[in-house]
């Protein structure tokens, strides 16, 4: 059984409430339940933190033993050299995910410190971006 983890960064705990015109009205917990039901042969875990260091700690914790990491570092994508370095330091492949099309938003969101060390990037497909990332590991 493949072992995957979805790691979500700041403010993604507010999905379903935060800017539904951009992020939709479904909570991440509701979405995760449907994904786990759909992919019963895959172990899918989830971790969310608003704290940069906790995201780095989790990447280091799972980055040598999991089959894949789906990382939505949210705003830290564009600001955190530390998260980018953590992705570079681990062995587990990372797919960078974004719910919105970051290139259709503010210019500062057009740069990623994660992308140079990611297996790939999926963005702009809403919550389906996560499912596409799961499929990339299967």
Automatic annotation (TrEMBL):
It comes from the Bacteria. Its EC number is 4.2.1.10. Substrate binds at residues 72, 78, 85, 99-100, 109. It holds the Pfam family DHquinase_II. It catalyses: 3-dehydroquinate = 3-dehydroshikimate + H2O. The active site is at 23 (proton acceptor), 98 (proton donor). One of its GO terms (molecular function) is 3-dehydroquinate dehydratase activity. InterPro entries: DHquinase_II, DHquinase_II_CS, DHquinase_II_sf. One of its GO terms (biological process) is chorismate biosynthetic process. Pathway: Metabolic intermediate biosynthesis; chorismate biosynthesis; chorismate from D-erythrose 4-phosphate and phosphoenolpyruvate: step 3/7. Keywords: Amino-acid biosynthesis, Aromatic amino acid biosynthesis, Lyase. HAMAP family: AroQ. Homododecamer. This is 3-dehydroquinate dehydratase. It comes from Olleya aquimaris. The lineage of its organism: Bacteria, Pseudomonadati, Bacteroidota, Flavobacteriia, Flavobacteriales. The gene is aroQ.
